[in-house]
Amino acid sequence: MSATFVGMPAFPAAAREALSDTQLRRNLAHATGTIRAKRAAVVGEVDEWEELRMAGAAIKDNTLRHLDEHLLRLEKSLTDRGATVHWARDAAEACEIVASIAKQHAVDEVVKVKSMATQEIGLNEALATQGITAWETDLAELIVQLGDDLPSHILVPAIHRNRAEIREIFRDKMAAAGRPAPDDLSDRPAELAGAARLHLREKFLRARMAVSGANFAVAETGTLVVVESEGNGRMCLTLPEVLVSVVGIEKIVPTWSDLDVFLQLLPRSSTGERMNPYTSTWSGATEGQEAHVVLLDNGRTRALADEVGRQALRCIRCSACLNVCPVYERTGGHAYGSVYPGPIGAILNPLLRGTGVDDQVDSLPYASSLCGACFEACPVRIDIPEVLVHLRSKVVDAHRSAPKAEAVAMKSASWVLADSKRLGLAERGMGLAGRLLGRFGRKVMPGGRRALGRLPWPGSLWSNARDVPAPPAESFRAWWRREGRR
Amino acid sequence: MKVAVQVTCINDAMFPDTGKAVFTLLRRLGVQADFPAAQTCCAQPMVNTGYLDEAVPVVRNFVDAFAGYDAIVTPSGSCAGSVRHQHSIVARRSGDDRLAAAVAETSPKVYELTEFLVDVLGVTDVGAYFPHRVTYHPTCHSLRMLGVGDRPLRLLREVRGLDLVELPAADECCGFGGTFAVKNAETSTAMGADKARHVLDTGAEVLVAGDNSCLLHIGGLLSRQRTGVRVMHLAEVLAGTEEA
């Protein structure tokens, strides 16, 4: 169980592989289509949805503006209520803190509540190197973990798997991890859930330490909030003697009344439910339990320093943007090379990790057609297309010292397009070339226009799949001049 | 009212008939519009690929070319969106206050064609005739960046002889996305193939949209697959009459 995203190819190459996986394409189209329809229906029920989105965005923006003060307040509230607060600058520090707590209590296994922050820092892998096994208890996370697989969706990490595949994983892998799957396990969802339930129950009752994240952290009362559907989270939060919560510093909300807005926005946007089945809240340490909170930066202050990009820190990890994204729907989450896939991943990864240092990360802002469906669906109004374009400019600027062919092309295009006379000349050249090329291209497109043949690279990237109409003999501006309009 | 038409670079170079159709249509509606010959491009190809420095001279040319007009009409939701939402970003980047002021002056005067027809001229029946079965693709930037809503459909419904059929999953992107189509060619093609399939499902003879760039992509796929379905810009449909 050691799959990681390390060494993933850049998006276009990873996407190419995913696009040829017909099973994946079917699974994704079915799942995203279903959840899209559910979300649309429950969002449509709320008359003041747009006002709620504005409120959510405003609360997060105000909080981020004074993040330092809110964090100190959270630390004080937590400490006053008996929890121990740790600060982690990066993944390595955070993992070390969790591992050392485990060692202090001499535990060699922990149960986990589904958490993006712990996946982001690679906690399970880090604990494994220290001889500590981390058991995922969310059903989809369990499927991913047992299958030695990688998550491909924020909310539904095993979205790329169908129930027949899940049955196989349970039958093949459950025994090695604890209670085996029943021999006569079918692929009926209720039976699969039943098998997972029995398998997990054993782990809940045995574990002395749990690790969670938090959907929200309320500064005024030191309250952490976990929102979930299965009840596994509540088992982890309440049964073990030691509870460690790894919380990104952007998860903070100042007060309980702020929380109200997000508890309306989150379930409708993510699972398409009016309200999620389980909402657990705890303030500091509860009786009989030792509570630790690890406040995680890991690039968040870097993102905060980016004027355009900082809006990504509003994200409440609902995954609505993934479910409406036509690129995600066809390529799946693995192509993004991160636990944060889809449109939000395409901006969050470069913001957290920085642009210009890694080709895979630099490919992400381009993994979008800028169609804007993500912005429309985002419950906290993150203008993802705006941030994508902004990050593209940062990628380009980071590579200006060693210009690529593309940069040369853009510079020449800019030169031509800055002056209509130059453009007019270029168009005459195109017209001539078009007439010549048109003679070789014998195909006529519907409507009667002649098509060019297949073009050499880089035109082949276009013409391999699409017919290209031959350029007209006369551009609009040439026609206008010839007609003597003005 | 002094009206200019931004024909757009792709229409100018590749689809001159769309530019001609806009002038035919506007003249029929009593609007004498100019084609400021100094115009070139809205700079969207540079901005959306991340080349903001390279976009600066193109935006400067845009505001110079269209200075002094009360309305600038463009047969492209994408270019209208780019002018409205991106020119200010480019101007800010340039550090040139005069450019920023010129952008603030020009950008709000840019109208996508259907916005100009419905909101400014107040017409939905433009006297057009087009006796074909047609389906309409609302291009992403028209739909989301501009929010043109049902304006194009209201115009199409008034066209005599036109049989308008609904496109399944109409609001899903066709996968063009400017340089996305070459940087992520396979993904772009996969999206376009699904769009083409939906178009075929309608049984329409013609796919109509308000952006020739998207139509270049979808039309290229429809043609390669020998579907026999043609693509046309909305302006060309609206310009048609029984005489012509």
How would you explain this protein's 3D organization?
The complex is a heterodimer of chains A (486) and B (244). Chain A has 486 residues and is α/β, with parallel strands linked by helices. Helix content of chain A is 51%, strand content 11%. Chain A contains 23 helices and twelve strands. Chain A has helices spanning 11-19, 22-44, 49-65, 67-80, 91-104, 116-120, 123-129, 139-146, 163-177, 189-206, 232-238, 256-270, 300-304, 320-324, 326-331, 342-353, 359-363, 373-377, 384-398, 405-417, 420-440, 460-463, 476-482; strands spanning 84-88, 109-112, 133-136, 209-212, 216-218, 223-228, 242-248, 252-253, 278-283, 290-296, 451-452, 468-469. In chain A, the strands form three sheets. In chain A, strands 1-10-7-4-2-3 form a six-stranded parallel sheet, with helices on both faces. The longest helix of chain A is centred in the N-terminal third of the chain and has 23 residues, at 22-44. Chain A is globular, with a radius of gyration of 26 Å. Chain A starts with 10 loop residues before the first helix and ends with a helix. The model of chain A has no long low-confidence stretch (mean pLDDT 95). With 244 residues, chain B is α/β, with parallel strands linked by helices. A four-stranded parallel sheet of chain B has the order 2-1-3-4, with helices on both faces. Chain B has a four-stranded parallel sheet with strand order 6-5-7-8, sandwiched between helices. In chain B, strand 7 (206-209), helix 12 and strand 8 form a beta-alpha-beta unit. Chain B is globular and about 55 Å long. The mean pLDDT of chain B is 97.
